[in-house]
Amino acid sequence: MTVRPLDLVRAAIRRMQGYVPGEQPQDKRYIKLNSNENPYPPSPRVTAALRRAIGDDLRLYPDPLADRLRDQAAAVYGLTREQILVGNGSDELLTMLMRTFVGAGDRVAYPVPTYSLYDALVAMQEGEAVRIPFPADFSLPPQLADTDAKLIFLCHPHAPSGTLPPLSTVETIAQRTRGILVIDEAYIDFAHETALPLLHKYPHVILLRSFSKSFSLAGLRIGLAFAHPSLIQELLKVKDSYNVNRLSLIAASAALEDYAWMRRNVDKIRATRGRLTQALRELGYFVYDSQANFVLARKQGINQQPIYRGLKERGILVRYFSSPELYDCLRITVGTDEQIDQLLASLKQLIS
Amino acid sequence: MDMQKYVPEWIRTLTPYQPGKPVEELEREYGIQDAIKIASNENPIGPSPRAVAAITAALPHLHRYPDGDAFYLKRRLAEKLGIERSRIIIGNGSNELIEMIVRAFLRVGEAVVIGEHAFAIYRLVTQAAGGRTITVPHKGFKFDLEAMSRAITPDTRIVFLDNPNNPTGTIYTRDEWEQFLRTVPPEVMIVVDEAYFEFVEDPAYPDSFAYHTGDRLLVTLRTFSKIGGLAGVRVGYGISSPEVIDILNRIRQPFNVNALAQVGALAALDDEEHIRRTRENNRQGMAYLRREFDRLGLAYAPSWANFLLVHLGPGMYERLLREGVIVRPMEGYGFPGYARVSVGTPAENERCIAALEKLLRERKS
Ligand SMILES: Cc1ncc(COP(=O)(O)O)c(C=O)c1O
Ligand SMILES: Cc1ncc(COP(=O)(O)O)c(C=O)c1O
């Protein structure tokens, strides 16, 4: 008898898509405006701290609880150590949230389109995804709180639109839901307002932060969860014992120490974002008001795939989604001014 | 908050893994200085120098996401092993791969078979996924493979074997393994965790890699944490059939292995000199510790790995700590009065023995 592994895996996983690696073209050097990375390097203090740490200590396991980083983040964000959990990217924190709170048949609600990992993680836990379509202006659908969901996910600012709902709307959802509200603030440093105050008012609100975007550390995979200590306590039980490596812990600490560096880069990116938005509008795009480090540009009813391809031929990668909700859009990461100038020049050629 | 409402019982009742405490923390707690830690089976001679150089060289690119497919590391591993890249998966430590296997193949309520004194993570991960562990008594310090095979129930999905076993250090032989393979039903996945594989120098040791014949569900796990000296950067790998690897990739987080771990592991893989020196240090350290334990009349389990499970008697862990020697107490593994001592550098080994000798003398008088 030969065994077919697929017959033995959980049905939920059998139904899932095979893994498709992201676009990593090797043929030439691209201007990468497709992954919402920061175009600027991390603080020189980060690099210096890493240089000091790269040596004999690499042989040693990291601190499993990351207490030094937790204490430091606690001081920066006005929290306590017990309210903070460190993850191998906020992706891992999302995974832990699902594993802790979602069992077979449990409902998880989120407005769509959104970060695609949510769908995959719900499927893995055999949960029921309650996907509520955004209206055309990407304002928060109020029925989100009426879904009887165990978990609600909210990107804040939203991906891929970059929009930020008024805090009062988010708070209404926190007040009305009987489940846990997870506010994914991967891009919050590029916005004018955080939902952090809600954490102090509602014990069932969880915030996620990432070092991948504003802190320029995508390669090191660091995320933070902020939540009520009793929730952190449960999450710790499903945490992989040594989930965050030594160098990432050191880099994140150094990055927090040079908060001003991050703020300067964020300011530059916001200025470029304004210019990019303006220029795209002049090219006839509808551009959502972005509070993130990317913009979503729409040409109503016109498939943007040819533009995406044309840009790629010209050495510029942006994000195109083929789904019916987004096929007429491009998502463009805000790069340096120079990169954005090149993008705009190419775009003008392609459009005319 | 009412956790019952949000969290399933099997998670609420879970006691998380208790890792060894960091040196700095113990020094603070006990008011000691210059402590040595020979407690976590780390590489005493340090990381591969080539890995250190490669990691340093990669620093300018940290603002970019890592390669989600770990292309170069997988390619080199595939070349070395003489297999297709599609048969390899890279994890954030081999720990993460253990986790992924359980999450993919185990349904709530189903069973995993483990040995009584196996690596503790198998049980914890199974519980966190809502599964059951069937725990089979050891025969002395060794897995009882026959009994483990008999313990398999119709709802058993996975058997975990760490060979050598942490914390006993023992191996099972090729004969035992081949007999085991003949008796385990083909639909049960066998995971052989070979974290200490590179230290074994016994012709009777079955390298599970040689048994990937395609007609059974077998996963081999290896790590860069031990021989590569890279426990701090978190990277391990799994080998199986393309079908199993494809399934594991479905639940893998898209960027699970950080950029520095990928380049570090790639460099360590080809650092033959570092591997040779690590093995040599281990061989000598192991011989020294055995000799000295014999001299001091301390009983220990035979070990094929980079650590020894030794009987010190009650209270010795704490007393060693006060002497600035950190080993791993073994109560949690069902070995009261035992400690697991990792092989250190010659100086660390000597300091451990000197401290033990002093404490034993005090105990007598
Ligand atoms: C909304 C959102 N959340 C989380 C993440 C993942 O962030 P990290 O790199 O911290 O895993 C992303 C990454 O693109 C994202 O867009
Ligand atoms: C048997 C065994 N498997 C796996 C591991 C974890 O290895 P890694 O550091 O690759 O996660 C260890 C670590 O001590 C171990 O002893």
- In CATH, the homologous superfamily of the largest domain in chain B goes by the name Type I PLP-dependent aspartate aminotransferase-like (Major domain)
Class of the largest domain in chain A in CATH? Alpha Beta
What is the residue-mean pLDDT of chain A, rounded to a whole number? Answer: 94
Radius of gyration of CA atoms of chain A, rounded to a whole number: 21 Å
Helix content of chain A: 25-40%
Described by strand count, sense and barrel closure, the largest sheet of chain A is: 7 strands, mixed
Helix/strand order of chain A: HHEHHEHEHEEHEHEEHHHEEHEEH
Which fold does the CATH topology of the largest domain in chain A refer to? Aspartate Aminotransferase, domain 2
- As for the number of domains of chain A, it is 2
Number of helices of chain B: 14
CATH superfamily of the largest domain in chain A: Type I PLP-dependent aspartate aminotransferase-like (Major domain)
Would you mind describing this structure in some detail?
- The complex is a heterodimer of chains A (352) and B (365).
- By secondary structure, chain A is of the alpha/beta class.
- Chain A has two domains: 23-42 and 260-351, Aspartate Aminotransferase, domain 1; 44-257, 3-Layer(aba) Sandwich (Aspartate Aminotransferase, domain 2).
- Chain A has 13 helices and twelve strands.
- Chain A has helices at residues 5-8, 11-14, 44-53, 67-77, 89-101, 117-124, 167-176, 196-201, 229-238, 246-257, 259-282, 305-313, 337-351; strands at 31-32, 84-87, 107-112, 128-133, 151-155, 180-184, 205-210, 223-226, 286-287, 294-298, 316-317, 329-333.
- Chain A has a seven-stranded mixed sheet, with helices on both faces.
- In chain A, helix 4 (67-77) runs parallel beside helix 10 (246-257) and helix 5 (89-101) runs parallel beside helix 6.
- The model of chain A has no long low-confidence stretch (mean pLDDT 94).
- With 365 residues, chain B is an alpha/beta fold.
- Chain B has two domains: 19-46 and 273-364, Aspartate Aminotransferase, domain 1 (Alpha-Beta Complex), CATH 3.90.1150; 49-271, Aspartate Aminotransferase, domain 2.
- Helix content of chain B is 39%, strand content 14%.
- In chain B, strands 2-8-7-6-5-3-4 form a seven-stranded mixed sheet, with helices on both faces. In chain B, strands 9-12-11 form a three-stranded antiparallel sheet, with helices on one face. In chain B, strands 1-10 form a two-stranded parallel sheet.
- Chain B is globular.
- The interface between A and B is large, with 84 and 86 residues.
- Bound molecules: pyridoxal-5'-phosphate (PLP) (2 copies).
- One pyridoxal-5'-phosphate binds at residues 41, 93-95, 119, 162, 166, 193, 195, 223, 225, 231, 236 of chain B.
- The site of one pyridoxal-5'-phosphate (PLP) has 13 residues of chain A, from helix 5.
